[in-house]
Design goal:
236 residues; alpha/beta; TIM Barrel; seven-stranded parallel beta sheet; 36% helix
């Protein structure tokens, strides 16, 4: 296996300078997921094969020997969930132990943050973070992921431990739910907003973007708006 830590390109680069993908698929079953298309796999195959990439830990350990990742942040993960539902996630904990042993910082994005917190919170510090995706979608759109209420309660517990917290509101499916998050979630250190790019949804993206920005300013939230959404906002 070639070096598994890589520099993301395109839209992913707005979220992280470095990333690591641990699994070959994801069991969360989100209907809007872009990864099957990017990886040229059917949704059924992608959702049914969340197994660790062959040789991932050995390759990661070898890459980290360079020492070049000390003080840098590595994102877990883009094309999979680092803590997929119904799967043995020991590989994620082992990868995080290797990263922390190399003095790297870890930025986790998972729809199962309670699993992540239970598995690895003891390994993380104030320069690390656990984030979750909240789209406002009903559970049937994300059938095997933790319910949004559980995701938020887990994130609040993580925040109380002194670990960074963030929410990715990408894609925004139900704007009203996102507006509520901004108004009430004092335990979130950073919000990231993006539009739905891989399917069609009838939303006035310029209006949505401007409202989330206004609410973030009103509630003194740290936030970022991805370029595709900002472009819609600037066009009006």
């Amino acid at each position: 296996m070639k070096d598994p830590i890589y520099e993301p390109k395109g839209r992913a680069a707005e979220y992280a300078d470095l990333a690591l993908n641990l699994y070959t698929g994801c069991t969360n079953g989100c209907t809007y997921c872009y990864a099957p298309g990017v990886l040229r796999r059917s949704r059924e195959d992608f959702a049914g094969n969340a197994v660790p990439r062959k040789g991932i830990l050995e390759a990661l350990e070898r890459q980290l020997l360079s020492g070049e990742f000390a003080g840098k942040t590595v994102h877990l993960c883009f094309t999979c969930d680092p803590f997929p539902s119904g799967v043995d996630t020991q590989v994620a904990r082992d990868a995080i132990e290797l990263l922390k042993g190399a003095d790297a910082n870890v930025q986790i994005l998972t729809k199962n943050p309670s699993i992540a917190a239970h598995s690895c919170a003891c390994l993380l510090g104030e320069k690390d973070s656990i984030g979750t995706t909240i789209t406002g979608a009903p559970q049937l759109v994300e059938p095997n992921a933790e319910p949004s209420e559980l995701r938020l309660s887990a994130l609040e517990a993580v925040h109380d431990l002194g670990i960074g917290t963030w929410i990715s509101c990408e894609p925004i499916i139900d704007p009203e739910a996102i507006y509520e998050l901004i108004s009430t979630c004092d335990f979130v250190d950073l919000f990231k907003f993006g539009k739905l790019n891989y399917a069609t949804i009838d939303l006035d993206w310029a209006h949505v973007g401007k409202r989330v920005e206004r609410l973030c300013r009103e509630h003194d939230r740290c936030y970022m708006i991805k370029d595709s959404l900002r472009k819609e906002m600037d066009a009006r």
